[in-house]
């Protein structure tokens, strides 16, 4: 039996106690697509509305008029839904369990404490002149203050824009300028794997860049007490400000379609896009998926190991779990510190029932052998989840057998920053699992596969993954650029949302995501535009031209492979190679660190000057047979040189 045919059927005892078994999934799914108005109108009741919506769905995927509205006459507040409404029943229940980078540091915040501190922070924002519709940028470590800052924005109707703490000052500045953010929240330093990252220094550097004078204040959490510079009048200590404020801050009633946050993500071209997510539909999608996909049961400790800087952290550390009154674990560090047993030790220490992590983290542990998990028992685990990139069947089986002690279903969840929440996924009590497949669509999600010409393909086939109709968590637009939104997602296949992913559907209707079909690469689950890395490289004085492609990497899923053509006055050298690696790290951030640089005197181009990436991808993958038709190249001999000098063999 090949790996792909191996099936793990739903366990009967699991199905009996789960939120959804096979029949429930099927009947709910059917209703969700046959009668979305009734289905989502009913589901909306899981949130607390200050004005109940009567208009449920108004969505148009027409290329000339993409218009997406859910619950458009309803009013609610996302923060009140995540905190206030739980106070009566769960005021003393842990809302956030924080585990520090240092295993001796952890703390718990109850719903009451989180509510109180979030209200104080919301009042701080108001005192600083931040109100409804203003954008607040977060550049934070993985500490509870990050969640509080998101919730405090939501409470007063401000819009948060979280920038991952691993991005460079330039990348941060770019996002601050695009969002016209008045306030930045950061910490003196973050700590990961025993090392300090100078967040405040990075903010200082970012704020010297053009256009950042929109920022009036920087609020600084004292995380390490490390040395930082101080700009009087602009910089404020978080604790000093918050301590002065009352914990009474009424939640602002928001229209369901008011923006909750923007989150930047990379596309195949141009600068990162600020995806706009709104309040009602997003929160409903995050909450509902969190309950059904992880089969969350009252009182359980749930751990999503993502960073709040990514959409996974937004939906599945903060909004989904808190909207459900769950206990969410937030981990500051990395799974390899102080030892490779850390992940399991955290699970035992906090009695974690549900672990949601990435294929990269699993493969990195797997590389150390089964005994990396010997320091823990992990018998509190009930459900495992995977996200961010395709999980290979070997890593799936290892996750199942070694981390999950062969007792926990694995939910391989496919979704995107644009989708707001999980889209294609097993439900642990309802779906027979096939390692490597994200399986079946969640409620309300209508996937389809189309040919390059846009024809909908039926049955078992490969194709481009599209979604035929809207779902509540869908991003509504790109910040200040609706035209780009329409162009990026709705122009390739008119009338459909194009995901950018390739996919296979098998004879059981299961979906197998095969990876991006555009110029986006996915390195350790971090999504990057090859064009962004290329434009960074050509800004270096030695570089005439650069082409970036992904190539298969054992741990990271994809690695970054760069072809560089130097200017005439420059010679390839080890020193220059290192310099270019540092250049990109500094320009974009360590996540964009090049793995391989191949010096290439010229690049394969068509006669019209277009680089043929298909060929570069194959050479980078060491697949030099069957390069396809190279006759359209201006100079086919370029390819021979690239093959001969390829760096990955
Ligand atoms: O290519 C798909 C991959 O990650 C992309 C979305 O990246 P991002 O917006 O950063 O969001 C990541 C977390 C939701 C997708 O277009 N991807 C995500 N999940 C999976 C996946 N590929 C395969 N299997 C998955 N489960």
Automatic annotation (TrEMBL):
Cofactor: Mg(2+)
Domain Acetyl-coenzyme A synthetase N-terminal residues, every copy: 25-82
Positions of modified residues (N6-acetyllysine): 610
Highest taxon in the source lineage: Bacteria
EC annotation from Swiss-Prot or TrEMBL: 6.2.1.1
Catalytic activity: acetate + ATP + CoA = acetyl-CoA + AMP + diphosphate
Binding site for CoA: 192-195, 312, 524, 585
Transmembrane domains' residue ranges: none
Gene3D superfamilies cross-referenced by the UniProt entry: 3.30.300.30, N-terminal domain of ligase-like (3.40.50.12780)
Residues annotated to bind Mg(2+): 538, 540, 543
Residue ranges occupied by any AMP-dependent synthetase/ligase domain in the UniProt entry: 84-467
Keyword terms, alphabetized: Acetylation, ATP-binding, Ligase, Magnesium, Metal-binding, Nucleotide-binding
Gene Ontology CC annotations of this record: cytosol
GO annotation, biological process: acetyl-CoA biosynthetic process from acetate
Pfam entry (one): AMP-binding_C
Keyword Metal-binding applies: yes
Residues noted as binding ATP in the record, renumbered to the chain: 388-390, 412-417, 501, 516, 527
HAMAP family cross-referenced by the UniProt entry: Ac_CoA_synth (MF_01123)
Family, similarity comment: Belongs to the ATP-dependent AMP-binding enzyme family.
Protein's name according to its UniProt entry: Acetyl-coenzyme A synthetase
Gene giving rise to this polypeptide: acsA
